[in-house]
Amino acid sequence: MSRKIIFFDIDGTLFCPELGRITDEVKNAIKSVQKQGHLCFVASGRPYGFIAENVKEIGFDGYVLANGANVKYHNKDLTARYLNPEKVKELTECLKSKNIEYILQTPTLCYLNQSNQCLLDFYSHCNIDFHNLCYQYDEEDIIKRTVKMEAWTKNQEELDYAISCFQSFSYELHPDHHSLEIYSNEVSKATGILDVLHELNIDIKDSYCFGDGPNDVEMFETVGHPIAMGNAIEDIKKRAEIICPSVQENGVAIQLEKMFNE
Protein backbone atom coordinates (compact mmCIF):
# COMPACT_ATOMS: atom_id res chain seq x y z
CA MET A 1 0.00 0.00 0.00
CA SER A 2 1.34 3.46 -0.94
CA ARG A 3 1.70 6.04 1.81
CA LYS A 4 -1.61 7.74 2.61
CA ILE A 5 -2.34 11.03 4.33
CA ILE A 6 -5.43 11.58 6.47
CA PHE A 7 -6.76 14.97 7.59
CA PHE A 8 -8.98 15.17 10.68
CA ASP A 9 -11.28 17.94 11.81
CA ILE A 10 -11.32 18.28 15.62
CA ASP A 11 -14.68 19.43 16.97
CA GLY A 12 -17.44 16.92 16.31
CA THR A 13 -14.98 14.60 14.55
CA LEU A 14 -12.13 13.73 16.94
CA PHE A 15 -13.38 15.61 19.99
CA CYS A 16 -16.71 14.45 21.41
CA PRO A 17 -18.48 17.42 23.06
CA GLU A 18 -20.72 15.18 25.15
CA LEU A 19 -17.72 13.36 26.64
CA GLY A 20 -15.52 16.45 26.70
CA ARG A 21 -12.55 14.53 25.30
CA ILE A 22 -11.05 12.44 22.50
CA THR A 23 -11.53 8.78 23.35
CA ASP A 24 -8.65 6.35 23.80
CA GLU A 25 -10.06 4.26 20.94
CA VAL A 26 -9.66 7.17 18.52
CA LYS A 27 -6.18 8.05 19.81
CA ASN A 28 -4.99 4.46 19.48
CA ALA A 29 -6.46 4.07 15.99
CA ILE A 30 -4.57 7.15 14.76
CA LYS A 31 -1.30 5.94 16.27
CA SER A 32 -1.81 2.53 14.66
CA VAL A 33 -2.21 4.14 11.23
CA GLN A 34 0.97 6.17 11.76
CA LYS A 35 2.91 3.04 12.73
CA GLN A 36 2.04 1.65 9.31
CA GLY A 37 3.85 4.60 7.69
CA HIS A 38 0.88 6.83 6.89
CA LEU A 39 0.61 10.51 7.81
CA CYS A 40 -2.07 11.97 10.08
CA PHE A 41 -2.80 15.71 10.13
CA VAL A 42 -5.26 17.85 12.02
CA ALA A 43 -7.30 20.16 9.76
CA SER A 44 -9.02 22.72 11.95
CA GLY A 45 -10.43 26.19 12.06
CA ARG A 46 -8.51 26.56 15.30
CA PRO A 47 -5.14 28.32 15.49
CA TYR A 48 -2.26 26.41 17.09
CA GLY A 49 -2.80 28.23 20.37
CA PHE A 50 -6.26 26.65 20.60
CA ILE A 51 -5.02 23.09 20.08
CA ALA A 52 -5.29 21.48 23.51
CA GLU A 53 -2.60 19.26 24.97
CA ASN A 54 -4.90 16.22 24.75
CA VAL A 55 -4.81 16.70 20.96
CA LYS A 56 -1.08 17.45 20.69
CA GLU A 57 -0.18 14.41 22.79
CA ILE A 58 -1.56 12.12 20.08
CA GLY A 59 1.52 13.03 18.04
CA PHE A 60 0.08 14.22 14.75
CA ASP A 61 2.54 14.63 11.88
CA GLY A 62 1.24 18.10 11.16
CA TYR A 63 -1.56 20.63 11.31
CA VAL A 64 -3.64 22.64 8.85
CA LEU A 65 -4.74 25.49 11.12
CA ALA A 66 -6.84 28.65 11.18
CA ASN A 67 -8.87 27.39 8.22
CA GLY A 68 -5.73 26.86 6.13
CA ALA A 69 -3.90 30.10 6.95
CA ASN A 70 -1.18 28.29 8.90
CA VAL A 71 0.30 24.87 8.06
CA LYS A 72 2.76 23.05 10.32
CA TYR A 73 4.73 19.87 9.63
CA HIS A 74 6.66 18.31 12.50
CA ASN A 75 6.44 21.58 14.48
CA LYS A 76 7.78 23.74 11.64
CA ASP A 77 5.69 26.27 9.72
CA LEU A 78 5.23 25.36 6.06
CA THR A 79 2.99 28.39 5.50
CA ALA A 80 1.72 31.34 7.53
CA ARG A 81 -0.64 33.57 5.58
CA TYR A 82 -1.36 36.67 7.62
CA LEU A 83 -4.44 38.83 7.34
CA ASN A 84 -3.94 42.27 5.82
CA PRO A 85 -2.82 44.41 8.81
CA GLU A 86 -4.58 47.56 7.61
CA LYS A 87 -7.86 45.71 7.17
CA VAL A 88 -7.49 44.02 10.56
CA LYS A 89 -6.91 47.41 12.19
CA GLU A 90 -10.02 48.80 10.49
CA LEU A 91 -12.01 45.81 11.71
CA THR A 92 -10.79 46.07 15.31
CA GLU A 93 -11.68 49.78 15.39
CA CYS A 94 -15.09 48.92 14.00
CA LEU A 95 -15.71 46.29 16.69
CA LYS A 96 -14.35 48.48 19.49
CA SER A 97 -16.81 51.24 18.58
CA LYS A 98 -19.67 48.94 19.63
CA ASN A 99 -17.79 47.20 22.48
CA ILE A 100 -17.90 43.90 20.59
CA GLU A 101 -15.46 41.36 22.03
CA TYR A 102 -12.78 39.94 19.73
CA ILE A 103 -9.58 37.90 19.81
CA LEU A 104 -6.49 38.04 17.57
CA GLN A 105 -4.99 34.66 16.68
CA THR A 106 -1.38 34.18 15.49
CA PRO A 107 0.54 30.99 14.51
CA THR A 108 1.64 30.62 18.15
CA LEU A 109 -0.57 32.42 20.68
CA CYS A 110 -3.94 34.17 20.96
CA TYR A 111 -4.52 37.69 22.25
CA LEU A 112 -7.58 39.26 23.85
CA ASN A 113 -8.62 41.73 26.51
CA GLN A 114 -9.10 40.08 29.90
CA SER A 115 -12.44 41.88 30.24
CA ASN A 116 -13.82 39.86 27.31
CA GLN A 117 -15.82 37.65 29.64
CA CYS A 118 -18.25 36.29 27.04
CA LEU A 119 -15.40 34.95 24.90
CA LEU A 120 -13.60 33.55 27.94
CA ASP A 121 -16.77 31.79 29.13
CA PHE A 122 -17.30 30.38 25.64
CA TYR A 123 -13.72 29.09 25.41
CA SER A 124 -13.99 27.39 28.80
CA HIS A 125 -16.24 24.80 27.08
CA CYS A 126 -14.09 24.36 23.97
CA ASN A 127 -11.19 22.12 25.05
CA ILE A 128 -8.76 25.03 24.89
CA ASP A 129 -5.48 25.45 26.78
CA PHE A 130 -5.81 28.82 28.53
CA HIS A 131 -2.01 29.02 28.91
CA ASN A 132 -1.93 30.11 25.26
CA LEU A 133 -4.15 33.15 25.89
CA CYS A 134 -2.33 36.47 26.35
CA TYR A 135 -3.94 39.51 27.97
CA GLN A 136 -1.05 42.01 27.95
CA TYR A 137 0.17 42.84 24.45
CA ASP A 138 0.91 45.52 21.87
CA GLU A 139 -2.06 45.28 19.52
CA GLU A 140 -0.29 47.19 16.74
CA ASP A 141 2.39 44.48 16.70
CA ILE A 142 0.02 41.50 16.99
CA ILE A 143 -2.15 42.76 14.13
CA LYS A 144 0.84 42.25 11.80
CA ARG A 145 0.97 38.53 12.70
CA THR A 146 -2.74 37.72 12.84
CA VAL A 147 -3.92 34.72 10.80
CA LYS A 148 -7.51 34.65 12.09
CA MET A 149 -9.92 36.47 14.39
CA GLU A 150 -13.00 35.60 16.37
CA ALA A 151 -15.71 37.87 17.76
CA TRP A 152 -18.63 37.54 20.17
CA THR A 153 -21.89 39.45 19.75
CA LYS A 154 -24.47 39.73 22.53
CA ASN A 155 -27.58 40.32 20.40
CA GLN A 156 -28.90 40.50 16.85
CA GLU A 157 -28.12 44.21 16.51
CA GLU A 158 -24.44 43.62 17.35
CA LEU A 159 -24.34 40.58 15.07
CA ASP A 160 -25.73 42.51 12.10
CA TYR A 161 -23.28 45.34 12.73
CA ALA A 162 -20.29 42.99 13.05
CA ILE A 163 -21.16 41.20 9.81
CA SER A 164 -21.39 44.57 8.04
CA CYS A 165 -17.74 45.14 9.04
CA PHE A 166 -16.52 41.87 7.48
CA GLN A 167 -16.63 42.89 3.81
CA SER A 168 -12.89 42.26 3.36
CA PHE A 169 -13.04 38.83 5.03
CA SER A 170 -14.78 35.48 5.03
CA TYR A 171 -16.57 34.48 8.20
CA GLU A 172 -18.44 31.60 9.79
CA LEU A 173 -21.28 32.08 12.26
CA HIS A 174 -21.43 29.41 14.95
CA PRO A 175 -24.75 27.66 15.64
CA ASP A 176 -25.07 29.65 18.89
CA HIS A 177 -25.51 32.79 16.72
CA HIS A 178 -23.15 34.72 18.99
CA SER A 179 -19.61 33.70 18.02
CA LEU A 180 -18.02 34.34 14.64
CA GLU A 181 -14.78 33.15 13.06
CA ILE A 182 -13.16 35.68 10.73
CA TYR A 183 -10.49 34.69 8.22
CA SER A 184 -9.03 35.58 4.82
CA ASN A 185 -11.23 34.93 1.80
CA GLU A 186 -8.11 33.57 0.07
CA VAL A 187 -7.61 30.57 2.37
CA SER A 188 -9.54 27.49 3.46
CA LYS A 189 -8.78 24.03 4.75
CA ALA A 190 -8.52 23.08 1.06
CA THR A 191 -5.71 25.55 0.31
CA GLY A 192 -3.85 24.33 3.40
CA ILE A 193 -4.25 20.70 2.35
CA LEU A 194 -3.00 21.46 -1.15
CA ASP A 195 0.04 23.15 0.41
CA VAL A 196 0.75 19.94 2.36
CA LEU A 197 0.28 17.63 -0.63
CA HIS A 198 2.58 19.79 -2.76
CA GLU A 199 5.27 20.10 -0.10
CA LEU A 200 5.29 16.36 0.71
CA ASN A 201 4.80 15.25 -2.91
CA ILE A 202 1.71 13.16 -2.15
CA ASP A 203 -0.83 12.39 -4.89
CA ILE A 204 -4.32 13.65 -4.20
CA LYS A 205 -5.69 10.13 -4.75
CA ASP A 206 -3.82 9.10 -1.59
CA SER A 207 -5.50 11.76 0.57
CA TYR A 208 -8.41 11.23 2.97
CA CYS A 209 -10.32 13.44 5.38
CA PHE A 210 -12.82 13.15 8.21
CA GLY A 211 -15.20 16.02 8.98
CA ASP A 212 -18.65 17.07 10.06
CA GLY A 213 -19.23 20.82 9.70
CA PRO A 214 -19.62 23.70 7.24
CA ASN A 215 -15.94 24.69 7.26
CA ASP A 216 -15.11 21.18 6.01
CA VAL A 217 -16.88 21.65 2.65
CA GLU A 218 -13.81 22.82 0.71
CA MET A 219 -11.76 20.02 2.27
CA PHE A 220 -14.34 17.46 1.13
CA GLU A 221 -14.20 18.85 -2.40
CA THR A 222 -10.39 18.62 -2.47
CA VAL A 223 -9.18 15.31 -1.03
CA GLY A 224 -9.39 12.03 -2.88
CA HIS A 225 -11.56 10.29 -0.28
CA PRO A 226 -13.84 12.42 1.95
CA ILE A 227 -15.41 10.64 4.95
CA ALA A 228 -18.35 12.20 6.82
CA MET A 229 -19.14 11.57 10.44
CA GLY A 230 -22.57 10.16 11.23
CA ASN A 231 -23.29 13.41 13.09
CA ALA A 232 -22.23 15.58 10.11
CA ILE A 233 -24.49 18.19 8.54
CA GLU A 234 -26.31 17.11 5.38
CA ASP A 235 -24.16 19.33 3.15
CA ILE A 236 -21.12 17.31 4.23
CA LYS A 237 -22.81 13.92 4.02
CA LYS A 238 -23.88 14.49 0.42
CA ARG A 239 -20.26 15.21 -0.57
CA ALA A 240 -18.84 12.15 1.21
CA GLU A 241 -17.53 8.96 -0.32
CA ILE A 242 -18.23 7.19 2.99
CA ILE A 243 -20.37 8.02 6.04
CA CYS A 244 -18.90 6.47 9.18
CA PRO A 245 -20.50 6.21 12.64
CA SER A 246 -20.85 9.38 14.72
CA VAL A 247 -18.24 10.92 16.99
CA GLN A 248 -20.23 9.60 19.96
CA GLU A 249 -19.80 6.09 18.52
CA ASN A 250 -16.03 6.37 17.92
CA GLY A 251 -16.64 6.73 14.19
CA VAL A 252 -13.05 7.69 13.35
CA ALA A 253 -11.64 4.64 15.14
CA ILE A 254 -14.13 2.28 13.50
CA GLN A 255 -13.48 3.63 10.00
CA LEU A 256 -9.68 3.65 10.34
CA GLU A 257 -9.83 0.03 11.48
CA LYS A 258 -11.82 -0.87 8.35
CA MET A 259 -9.46 1.03 6.05
CA PHE A 260 -6.10 -0.05 7.42
CA ASN A 261 -6.49 -3.21 9.48
CA GLU A 262 -8.96 -5.42 7.63
Automatic annotation (TrEMBL):
Pfam families, per database record: Hydrolase_3
SUPFAM superfamilies to which the protein is assigned, alphabetical: HAD-like (SSF56784)
TM region(s), chain numbering: none
UniProt GO molecular function: hydrolase activity
Family matches, as Gene3D superfamilies: 3.30.1240.10, HAD superfamily/HAD-like
Alphabetical UniProt keywords: Hydrolase
InterPro entries per the UniProt record, alphabetical: Cof (IPR000150), HAD-like_sf (IPR036412), HAD-SF_hydro_IIB (IPR006379), HAD_sf (IPR023214)
The keyword Phosphoprotein is assigned to this record: no
Keyword Hydrolase found: yes
NCBIfam families in UniProt: Cof-subfamily (TIGR00099), HAD-SF-IIB (TIGR01484)
PANTHER family linked to this entry: HAD SUPERFAMILY HYDROLASE-LIKE, TYPE 3, PHOSPHOSERINE PHOSPHATASE
Protein name: Cof-type HAD-IIB family hydrolase
Source organism (scientific name): Massilimicrobiota timonensis
